[in-house]
Specification:
The structure is a homotrimer. Helix content of chain A is 38%, strand content 15%. Chain A is an alpha/beta fold. The first copy, chain A, has a five-stranded parallel sheet with strand order 4-3-2-1-5, with helices on both faces.
Chain lengths: 156, 156, 156
């Protein structure tokens, strides 16, 4: 039986939604699937060498479980975004959740193909030197060629 | 002809994005499809027995149709999140849209399989007693096994 | 070989997430794929004749590349949403990215089928006269009938 194939379009760059593409891609690769991830829009943030700027915002997200209920006006005070980010990171570390960097390395070592959307790279003036090695650059048309053959294709 | 299959990864827990997984799952089940929904990240909020805390935020969402145009600074005043939530719920009720609880019951009665992401349950310290009965617990690997056989697989 | 098929559920109406459904649909149509887009929730905003109200919010989106780092409290000042929107539009124009109107026209001319979700039209009191010509109205059940036959189905 041929290996299953999965394509992911990763468009988000905040800490919470940065996890799903990397968790799903690394899990599928571990199952022997062929996986490609197309990073576009804010998803390009996940290809930066330095991921320390990946943050999470408690604002406009009433579904985020918080240690204490936080009124909207409090969540907007200076420093709250940084605080929410470090709280989330500490919680993940304590619970043994792999870091984004670790998951990304697992993906690359398992031959998950990472493709940076050339159009968004140009639009946001990203530099190729900002990104990790081992990735490719391409457009939606090339990616759809692969996506059309997959068993699972997700827009995240 | 074999029944169609659909897999949904439900990651959002705000009022607006809580609807799509439940509407699509119940509709597909009504068509005779085999459906599994994997609830992860904020999506776990949809499995709580008590859904009254599901809210909607007008902040950072310029696309939300509002009865009156609302400047960003107003949308951040204390109570506006609760107000937007109750306005949306009232509108849905008036228009005959089923509640989240009703749609969830329809899904469970139609044998839609609900799976709570064990990793997120642990991460956010959810208690199994918080959740409705009749659900399973699992991980991404198991879910991908089903997803790889589906006709439609959506990340919401 | 039969043409590939793609189904897109377009649920977002902000400037950034308005692009992916239209870019993917027009690209797939150019490759000869049969494409249907189901516009629901905020995605209905993309069917309005006048798209000038489509905006982007810097609030609650720490992943948005900004010309200058902007504290959350600043991003909430009156006028910042309009400023972020016009900055993004100016950047896209300068970089040669097609406008939403142009991409939408390309889709319609390439026989991409646009379907407005009747339930959301009713819920948000949209008027058919608000929308562009050449679209259809339907529900989730009909759309799933097509989605179940596709090679790629995305929830955006």
């Amino acid at each position: 039986m041929a290996a299953k194939k999965m394509a992911i379009i990763a468009t988000k760059g905040a800490l919470d939604m940065a996890y799903p593409p990397l968790i799903l891609a690394s899990t599928a690769a571990a199952l022997g699937w062929e996986v490609q991830v197309f990073f576009t829009f804010y998803g390009l943030q996940l290809l930066r060498k330095d991921l320390s700027g990946i943050a999470i915002s408690p604002i406009g997200n009433p579904a985020m479980p918080m240690p204490v209920p936080m009124p909207v006006v409090v969540s907007m005070l200076p420093g709250m975004e940084a605080m929410a980010t470090s709280m989330m990171k500490a919680k993940m570390k304590k619970k043994g959740v792999a870091s984004l960097e670790e998951l990304r390395t697992v993906c690359l070592e398992a031959d998950v193909k990472f493709i940076a959307c050339q159009m968004t790279v140009d639009l946001f003036d990203f530099q190729k030197s900002d990104f990790v090695d081992g990735i490719e650059y391409g457009g939606a048309a090339t990616f759809l060629g692969f996506a059309g053959q997959t068993d699972v294709c997700l827009f995240i």
